[in-house]
Specification:
The protein is an alpha+beta fold. The chain contains 19 helices and 19 strands. The strands form six sheets. Strands 6-7-8-3-9-10 form a six-stranded mixed β-sheet, sandwiched between helices. The chain has a four-stranded antiparallel β-sheet with strand order 2-1-4-5. Strands 17-18-19 form a three-stranded antiparallel β-sheet. Helix 2 runs antiparallel to helix 3.
């Protein structure tokens, strides 16, 4: 990959060459007024037909040569622009990929690409030609001074005024153009964000509000654009006025001098042509000032890209150096005051299985991103075999670390392209990875199989299918470590078990695993469990209590509002009878049960401006009812979904201490009264169980 110095040297050489051709063009343009002077001074008064014919042939030859030189100059700049676009475009694309892993704003990559297009377009635009021609303006002014000193000095003074005005206006336009550019970017970004969800926008009742916001942003954009355009027009008008003044003054003053006999008509014609050649490029330069300003800004942006260290050129580590080391890494995301990770150190040995767990917001996704090289830590180091993790993704060949984020990332192409990472690896290798994941059957069932297009961002596949393809890519290429973030999302228990079997097979073959999950089937694979809490990590052995001492009181409301106590262990484990009825196994159960007696209760969960009463379970009869709105009658649920009896070791209240909550004594009106007690319509506040922290919190409705 070429460096900034090499690219600048080649672009500079091309510009100098084009400037030399511009000098040849200016010389030919200078010859034409001299031919006109000779024609009117010598040939026409003497009626020299042969001389006139010879001058005509010379002028025709000069015009043909002029056209050829113009063509060569344009071709030089075209080739330079295409070469620049290819070389710098490669750097911009790869740098954008790396900088995204360093928590750079995604829109910065679009700004870099826009700067590249601006620079490429400017190289072949009339604005560039105006710059080349303006360089040779002194040549025409010197010719005018040589022919007639007073008029030459007058034209020179006008040229100086135009140059000073252009420089002053360029300085004044810089701020206005920056404001217009930023306003346009805000409008474009908001429009892209507001239209990306498609039909969901009106369904979510966002259309009117987003339209009003866009109108506000667009008004600011129009205002900034109008201010900038007004200044540009003022500059162009001033330059045109000076140009007309110069030609008009030369014509009037020259005419008066001709009447007095101090100037010949032939010399006046030559001076008029030279005035046009001297002031014309400056007028075009004033008109091209917006393009020049945009190109200058693009140069600054691209220079910042090209001076970025080429950290993405590192080679892959050799086989055997597959040790992942995190040393006091921390991450603070933009716009967040509190860090997501705080001084996490972790050493993953070859073939080791690490399971990462913790409540939502504890930093699991941030940690997996760092382990996969998808996120550069704010501080600390993350390395694989002694090399920075973020650099490994840009080596040749399959990466040593496979990664499947919780949000699947697919690029416009086919399923096969995304599995093999758009490489030339065989279809058989993609199928092998799909078989390991268990996605081969669903892929081959599609009409086009592995050649099925996924669309931009994978929108032509369902979320479940996108996650499956993402898992296939993580398994592909025999990585030495696989990092999975919440791989059990959207999977049934049977599918998670099959995934656990596949991961167990890989672990037995020596593949390291790092899995962020709270599913018991995946925890069973762990050699070590890393528990995250508020960004800090601690390591425990498999089977140890992940949250000791974190008991919390939750609302396990019976018919008369009795409260039951529970610990965090009941949540997610599917245990029934410790205050929360089987929230892991049954998915969404808000009921409460007491072990032994089977006395059912209810849990009030304030959601927005609705309060939902929990279900009711009777251990002996096995009857189970689903949650119902306050005042409604719970509907019988599928017996298959009934919570299992509480384990014998569950810590619950004595059944005799609980109020009678049998089916016969269950009163929907009592539940509604309890909902009204916990929900205050005037204050809009209610008690709500927080399923992540295991505590009762007061939440605004």
């Amino acid at each position: 990959m070429q460096t900034l110095k090499q690219i600048s040297r080649q672009v500079r050489a091309a510009i100098i060459t084009a400037c030399v051709f511009s000098g040849c063009i200016a010389s030919l343009l200078l010859v034409l007024p001299l031919i006109a002077l000779t024609l009117f001074n010598d040939m026409l008064p003497t009626a020299n037909f042969e001389g006139v014919l010879m001058l005509g042939v010379m002028a025709l030859g000069g015009l043909i040569t002029l056209a050829v030189l113009e063509l060569v100059r344009a071709r030089i700049m075209l080739r330079t622009a295409v070469w620049f676009d290819h070389v710098v475009g490669h750097v911009v694309f790869r740098t954008a990929q790396y900088e995204l892993t360093a928590a750079r704003h995604p829109q910065a990559a679009l700004m870099d690409a826009d700067a590249l297009r601006t620079a490429r377009t400017f190289m072949t635009s009339p604005a560039m030609t105006a710059l080349f021609d303006a360089v040779w303006v002194p040549l025409f002014l010197l010719a005018m001074v040589a022919l007639y000193l007073p008029i030459g000095l007058f034209a020179g003074a006008l040229a100086v005024i135009m140059v000073v005005a252009i420089a002053w206006q360029r300085r004044g336009l810089r701020k206005a153009q920056q404001q217009a550019r930023e306003a346009a970017a805000r409008v474009d970004l908001f429009a892209a964000s507001a239209t990306a969800p498609g039909p969901a926008v009106p369904a979510l009742k966002l259309a009117a509000g987003t339209a009003a916001r866009w109108e506000k942003l667009n008004r600011a954009h129009v205002s900034a654009g109008y201010t900038y355009g007004s200044r540009v027009n003022a500059q162009a008008t001033f330059a045109a006025a000076l140009w007309f003044l110069g030609e008009g003054a030369v014509l009037v003053v020259g005419g008066l001098l001709c009447v007095q006999g101090a100037l010949s008509p032939a010399l006046l014609v030559a001076l008029l042509l030279l005035t046009n050649r001297a002031l014309g490029p400056l007028r075009r330069l004033a008109l091209a000032l917006p393009q020049i300003q945009a190109a200058t800004h693009a140069k600054r942006v691209l220079r910042g890209v090209l001076v970025t260290p080429a950290r993405h050129t590192a080679a892959l580590t050799p086989a055997g150096s597959d040790r992942l080391v995190l040393n006091e890494v921390g991450v603070t995301h933009p716009g967040r005051a509190a860090p997501s990770l705080r001084g996490v150190s972790l050493d993953v040995a070859p073939g080791e299985v690490i399971v990462i767990t913790g409540p939502s917001g504890a930093g699991k996704s941030s940690l997996t991103q760092i382990m996969a090289g998808a996120l550069a830590p704010t501080y600390g180091t993350a390395s694989w075999g002694g090399q920075p993790l973020a650099s490994l993704a840009y080596g040749e060949g399959p990466p040593p670390i496979g990664y499947a984020p919780d949000e699947p990332v697919l690029i416009d192409g086919t399923i096969y392209d995304n599995i093999v990472r758009f490489s030339d690896m065989s279809l058989l290798s993609a199928a092998r990875a799909a078989m390991q994941v268990g996605a081969h059957e669903f892929i081959t069932a599609l009409p086009r199989g592995y050649e099925t297009p996924v669309g931009p961002n994978g929108v032509w596949l369902s979320l479940r299918e996108r996650r499956a393809v993402s898992l296939c890519r993580a398994f592909h290429g025999n990585p030495r470590l696989i990092v999975l973030d919440s791989p059990d999302l959207g999977l049934s228990n049977d599918e998670v078990e099959r995934l656990a079997d596949a991961l167990s097979t890989l672990a037995a073959e020596g593949t390291g695993l790092a899995i962020a999950s709270r599913h018991p089937a995946l925890h069973a694979l762990a050699d070590r469990i890393v528990v995250l809490d508020e960004g800090r990590a601690r390591t425990i052995e498999p089977g140890a209590d992940e949250a000791p001492g974190e008991a919390a009181v939750v609302a396990a409301v019976g018919a008369d509002g009795a409260m039951g106590a529970t610990g965090m262990g009941a949540i997610g484990s599917g245990a029934t009878g410790t205050g929360i009825a089987g929230m892991g196994a049954t998915g969404m159960t808000a009921g409460a049960a007491a072990a032994g007696a089977g006395a059912g209760g209810s849990l009030i969960d304030a959601l927005g401006d609705h309060a939902w009463a929990g279900g009711q379970a009777v251990a002996g009869a096995g009857a189970y009812e689903t949650p119902a709105p306050p005042g409604g009658t719970p509907e019988p649920a599928d017996p298959a979904l009934s919570p299992a009896p509480a384990p014998a070791h569950a810590e619950t209240q004595d059944a005799s201490a609980l109020p009678d909550a049998s089916v016969a004594s269950f009163d929907p009106d009592a539940v509604e009264q309890e909902a009204d007690r916990l929900w205050d319509a005037e204050t809009g506040r209610a008690v709500r169980f927080d399923d992540q922290m295991g505590s009762v919190k007061e939440q605004t409705g």
